[in-house]
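Review form for a predicted model. The reviewer records the input and the model, then writes brief findings.
Reviewer: anonymous (R2)
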Amino acid sequence: MPDREPTDGSPPPGPSAEHQDPALAELVAGTADDVWRFTEATGREQALTYAQKWIRDADPDVREVGFMALGWVALNHPPALKELLDHADAGCSDVDVRVRVAVAQALGNQGGEQRCVPFLLRLLNDADVEVRQIAVGGLPIVLDDPTADDPAVTALVGLLADQEPTLRDWAAFALGSQLDVDSPQIRAGLRSLLSELDTDTAEAYPAAEAAVGLARRADPEVFTAIADRLTRPDPTTLWLRAAAELADPRLLPALLQLRAPDNEPDDPWVEQLEHAIARCTAGPMDDGTS
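Model under review:
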């Protein structure tokens, strides 16, 4: 949790809870895992009491820790979830980006909690890319069996055309692999990504994620894209997974060409390659899982 210095010439904030509580000072200087361990060691009632105070603090570092703690406690404590929802609006509007990141993470961790969806949809329009990315990642977790016309699904489809590759990647993953929902609009959005180049520098693979999603839906148009990528140098594990999902025997020649004497059997890439070969050998009517 980085230190923050005023950028507008204003003086630093006055004393806050951080300066009065050595334990809190350690949490501010620590990590999200430290906050989780603190909530576990403290107990949910006491942790909730701390979080209620911290999210109201003048210091954004303290508010960040407060929303982190509140998100952890809310996972199994309804009063904490109520507190999180009651203060989510203020958290989404916080001037400090790290606080908004913590709010997005706290909301996005509440599995199947539909009441978090409106706030995450709001955060999809945040000025900060990291906040938006976390909101995208949280939507499939909090959504409860959405339909194709659900506003959250519509928003994710829109993000498939976002200018940020990481957001296209996360949206493709959400729609392609995490949500069991289908529509012509979803398929068209995923198909639009198939020609993108994978890039390690951005750590984003929207084309491969889209291919997995289309293969899961047995979309006939994805075959050509998968077959093409398998013949290029070093196809990623995601492209092998897409091949396994599609389970089309026509992919076997390209997959078999990827076998090499120096392949290590316990290498995840090699394991996925062999899984894809087995799936394509069995064909699409096989009942095995991928």
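Findings: Residues 5-15, 286-290 have pLDDT under 50 and may be disordered.
Further findings: The chain is about 60% helix and 0% strand.
Recommendation: see findings above.
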